[in-house]
Amino acid sequence: KQWYQRRVRGTSTLVTFNFELKLGKMVERENCVYTACFCEENVYKFISENSGHFEDMFAVFISNPLKQCAIWYQKMSEDPTVIPVCWDYHVVVIAKKSLNFLVYDLDTALSFPCPLEEYLSQCFRPSPSEISQWWYQFAIKTGHYFRPVNSYDFLETFSSDRSHMIDKTTGRWNSPPPKYEPIFKPDLGSTLLDFLDFENTSLPGKWLDYDQFSQYFSN
Asked: What does the pLDDT read at residue 10?
Protein backbone atom coordinates (compact mmCIF):
# COMPACT_ATOMS: atom_id res chain seq x y z
CA LYS A 1 0.00 0.00 0.00
CA GLN A 2 1.35 3.42 -0.97
CA TRP A 3 0.22 6.84 0.21
CA TYR A 4 0.82 9.66 -2.18
CA GLN A 5 0.34 13.37 -1.52
CA ARG A 6 0.14 16.27 -3.94
CA ARG A 7 -0.44 19.92 -3.20
CA VAL A 8 -3.17 21.55 -5.27
CA ARG A 9 -1.34 23.98 -7.50
CA GLY A 10 -1.51 27.56 -6.32
CA THR A 11 -3.20 26.71 -3.01
CA SER A 12 -2.44 25.41 0.47
CA THR A 13 -4.64 22.33 -0.02
CA LEU A 14 -2.86 18.99 0.34
CA VAL A 15 -4.58 15.98 -1.24
CA THR A 16 -3.73 12.47 -0.08
CA PHE A 17 -4.21 9.44 -2.32
CA ASN A 18 -4.15 5.81 -1.27
CA PHE A 19 -2.94 3.60 -4.10
CA GLU A 20 -3.15 -0.01 -3.03
CA LEU A 21 -2.73 -1.96 -6.23
CA LYS A 22 -5.35 -4.69 -6.56
CA LEU A 23 -5.52 -5.26 -10.29
CA GLY A 24 -7.42 -8.49 -9.94
CA LYS A 25 -10.52 -6.98 -8.41
CA MET A 26 -13.64 -6.22 -10.45
CA VAL A 27 -15.60 -3.05 -9.66
CA GLU A 28 -19.32 -3.81 -9.55
CA ARG A 29 -21.88 -1.19 -10.55
CA GLU A 30 -24.04 -1.80 -7.48
CA ASN A 31 -21.10 -1.04 -5.19
CA CYS A 32 -20.44 2.39 -6.67
CA VAL A 33 -21.58 5.69 -5.23
CA TYR A 34 -24.28 7.02 -7.55
CA THR A 35 -26.59 10.02 -7.70
CA ALA A 36 -28.61 10.66 -10.86
CA CYS A 37 -27.62 13.83 -12.76
CA PHE A 38 -24.44 14.29 -10.72
CA CYS A 39 -22.14 12.31 -13.01
CA GLU A 40 -19.11 14.46 -12.19
CA GLU A 41 -19.37 13.58 -8.51
CA ASN A 42 -20.04 9.94 -9.30
CA VAL A 43 -16.79 9.93 -11.27
CA TYR A 44 -14.89 11.68 -8.47
CA LYS A 45 -16.07 9.06 -5.96
CA PHE A 46 -15.29 6.21 -8.35
CA ILE A 47 -11.74 7.39 -8.95
CA SER A 48 -11.00 8.17 -5.31
CA GLU A 49 -12.28 4.76 -4.18
CA ASN A 50 -10.98 2.54 -7.00
CA SER A 51 -7.77 4.07 -8.33
CA GLY A 52 -5.68 1.25 -6.94
CA HIS A 53 -7.45 -1.34 -9.09
CA PHE A 54 -6.18 0.04 -12.39
CA GLU A 55 -2.93 0.84 -14.17
CA ASP A 56 -4.20 4.26 -15.21
CA MET A 57 -7.44 6.24 -14.97
CA PHE A 58 -9.01 9.31 -16.54
CA ALA A 59 -12.07 11.41 -15.89
CA VAL A 60 -13.55 12.28 -19.28
CA PHE A 61 -15.86 15.26 -19.80
CA ILE A 62 -18.18 14.92 -22.81
CA SER A 63 -19.97 17.90 -24.32
CA ASN A 64 -19.98 20.35 -27.24
CA PRO A 65 -19.99 24.15 -27.58
CA LEU A 66 -23.80 24.21 -27.73
CA LYS A 67 -24.10 22.09 -24.56
CA GLN A 68 -26.47 19.78 -26.45
CA CYS A 69 -24.76 16.41 -26.63
CA ALA A 70 -26.70 13.38 -27.90
CA ILE A 71 -25.56 10.10 -26.30
CA TRP A 72 -27.15 6.76 -27.08
CA TYR A 73 -27.49 3.79 -24.71
CA GLN A 74 -28.27 5.93 -21.67
CA LYS A 75 -30.54 4.32 -19.10
CA MET A 76 -32.65 7.46 -18.82
CA SER A 77 -33.88 7.07 -22.42
CA GLU A 78 -37.21 5.36 -23.02
CA ASP A 79 -35.52 3.43 -25.86
CA PRO A 80 -31.72 3.64 -25.39
CA THR A 81 -30.82 1.93 -28.67
CA VAL A 82 -32.89 4.34 -30.80
CA ILE A 83 -33.36 7.59 -28.88
CA PRO A 84 -30.39 9.28 -27.19
CA VAL A 85 -30.36 11.40 -24.08
CA CYS A 86 -29.34 14.96 -24.88
CA TRP A 87 -27.05 16.01 -22.05
CA ASP A 88 -25.54 19.45 -21.59
CA TYR A 89 -22.51 17.45 -20.49
CA HIS A 90 -21.62 14.01 -19.24
CA VAL A 91 -18.62 12.62 -17.35
CA VAL A 92 -17.32 9.04 -17.38
CA VAL A 93 -14.26 7.11 -16.24
CA ILE A 94 -11.81 5.47 -18.62
CA ALA A 95 -9.51 3.01 -16.90
CA LYS A 96 -6.60 0.95 -18.21
CA LYS A 97 -6.40 -2.64 -17.11
CA SER A 98 -4.21 -5.35 -18.65
CA LEU A 99 -3.49 -3.11 -21.66
CA ASN A 100 -7.22 -2.61 -22.30
CA PHE A 101 -9.14 0.64 -21.93
CA LEU A 102 -12.52 0.26 -20.24
CA VAL A 103 -15.34 2.77 -19.79
CA TYR A 104 -17.14 3.01 -16.48
CA ASP A 105 -20.37 4.92 -17.06
CA LEU A 106 -22.94 4.55 -14.30
CA ASP A 107 -25.66 5.93 -16.59
CA THR A 108 -25.14 3.59 -19.54
CA ALA A 109 -27.37 0.70 -20.57
CA LEU A 110 -24.28 -1.04 -21.96
CA SER A 111 -22.09 -3.39 -19.94
CA PHE A 112 -20.22 -2.12 -16.89
CA PRO A 113 -17.42 -1.78 -17.65
CA CYS A 114 -17.64 -1.49 -21.42
CA PRO A 115 -14.68 -1.77 -23.82
CA LEU A 116 -13.79 1.70 -25.05
CA GLU A 117 -14.17 0.92 -28.75
CA GLU A 118 -17.65 -0.53 -28.23
CA TYR A 119 -18.70 2.36 -26.01
CA LEU A 120 -17.63 4.96 -28.55
CA SER A 121 -19.29 3.27 -31.52
CA GLN A 122 -22.55 2.46 -29.74
CA CYS A 123 -22.98 5.74 -27.85
CA PHE A 124 -21.72 8.20 -30.46
CA ARG A 125 -21.62 6.44 -33.83
CA PRO A 126 -24.62 4.06 -33.94
CA SER A 127 -25.79 2.66 -37.27
CA PRO A 128 -27.97 5.27 -39.04
CA SER A 129 -30.41 2.56 -40.13
CA GLU A 130 -31.20 1.61 -36.54
CA ILE A 131 -31.79 4.98 -34.90
CA SER A 132 -33.96 8.06 -35.21
CA GLN A 133 -32.83 9.94 -38.31
CA TRP A 134 -33.64 13.28 -36.71
CA TRP A 135 -31.32 12.53 -33.82
CA TYR A 136 -28.66 11.19 -36.16
CA GLN A 137 -28.59 14.45 -38.09
CA PHE A 138 -28.68 16.41 -34.85
CA ALA A 139 -25.65 14.54 -33.51
CA ILE A 140 -23.68 15.14 -36.71
CA LYS A 141 -24.48 18.85 -36.62
CA THR A 142 -23.68 19.44 -32.94
CA GLY A 143 -20.80 16.98 -32.59
CA HIS A 144 -19.17 15.22 -29.65
CA TYR A 145 -16.10 16.51 -27.86
CA PHE A 146 -14.10 14.91 -25.09
CA ARG A 147 -11.79 16.30 -22.40
CA PRO A 148 -9.74 13.53 -20.75
CA VAL A 149 -8.16 14.48 -17.44
CA ASN A 150 -5.67 12.24 -15.64
CA SER A 151 -7.09 10.91 -12.37
CA TYR A 152 -4.44 12.59 -10.21
CA ASP A 153 -5.11 15.98 -11.78
CA PHE A 154 -8.86 15.50 -11.59
CA LEU A 155 -8.82 14.72 -7.87
CA GLU A 156 -6.62 17.76 -7.31
CA THR A 157 -8.54 20.31 -9.31
CA PHE A 158 -12.21 19.26 -9.40
CA SER A 159 -14.45 21.28 -7.10
CA SER A 160 -18.19 21.92 -7.19
CA ASP A 161 -20.59 23.85 -4.99
CA ARG A 162 -23.52 22.29 -6.94
CA SER A 163 -24.99 25.70 -7.72
CA HIS A 164 -25.36 24.75 -11.40
CA MET A 165 -28.08 22.32 -10.35
CA ILE A 166 -30.26 24.91 -8.62
CA ASP A 167 -33.05 26.56 -10.61
CA LYS A 168 -32.29 30.28 -10.58
CA THR A 169 -36.00 31.18 -10.66
CA THR A 170 -37.37 28.89 -7.96
CA GLY A 171 -34.22 28.21 -5.94
CA ARG A 172 -35.06 24.51 -6.03
CA TRP A 173 -32.86 21.61 -7.05
CA ASN A 174 -33.28 20.46 -10.65
CA SER A 175 -32.49 16.98 -9.35
CA PRO A 176 -32.01 15.80 -5.74
CA PRO A 177 -28.33 16.23 -4.76
CA PRO A 178 -26.09 13.60 -3.14
CA LYS A 179 -26.57 13.17 0.59
CA TYR A 180 -22.87 13.68 1.33
CA GLU A 181 -21.27 17.13 1.51
CA PRO A 182 -20.31 18.86 -1.77
CA ILE A 183 -16.86 18.13 -3.14
CA PHE A 184 -15.88 21.75 -2.73
CA LYS A 185 -12.38 23.12 -2.21
CA PRO A 186 -12.56 26.73 -0.94
CA ASP A 187 -9.05 27.53 -2.17
CA LEU A 188 -10.12 26.65 -5.72
CA GLY A 189 -13.72 27.75 -5.78
CA SER A 190 -16.09 25.81 -8.04
CA THR A 191 -14.18 24.53 -11.10
CA LEU A 192 -16.80 22.32 -12.78
CA LEU A 193 -17.98 24.97 -15.24
CA ASP A 194 -14.36 25.86 -16.01
CA PHE A 195 -13.73 22.25 -17.06
CA LEU A 196 -16.75 22.52 -19.39
CA ASP A 197 -15.63 25.83 -20.88
CA PHE A 198 -14.14 25.30 -24.34
CA GLU A 199 -12.10 28.50 -24.02
CA ASN A 200 -10.67 27.79 -20.58
CA THR A 201 -7.13 26.36 -20.60
CA SER A 202 -6.23 26.96 -16.95
CA LEU A 203 -7.24 23.45 -15.90
CA PRO A 204 -5.78 20.06 -16.93
CA GLY A 205 -6.94 18.39 -20.12
CA LYS A 206 -7.90 19.74 -23.53
CA TRP A 207 -10.93 19.25 -25.73
CA LEU A 208 -10.66 16.65 -28.52
CA ASP A 209 -13.10 15.81 -31.29
CA TYR A 210 -14.28 12.23 -31.81
CA ASP A 211 -11.42 11.18 -34.09
CA GLN A 212 -8.75 12.83 -31.95
CA PHE A 213 -10.17 11.22 -28.84
CA SER A 214 -10.26 7.77 -30.44
CA GLN A 215 -6.63 8.19 -31.41
CA TYR A 216 -5.71 9.42 -27.92
CA PHE A 217 -6.41 5.99 -26.44
CA SER A 218 -5.37 3.90 -29.44
CA ASN A 219 -1.90 3.02 -28.12
From this structure: 44
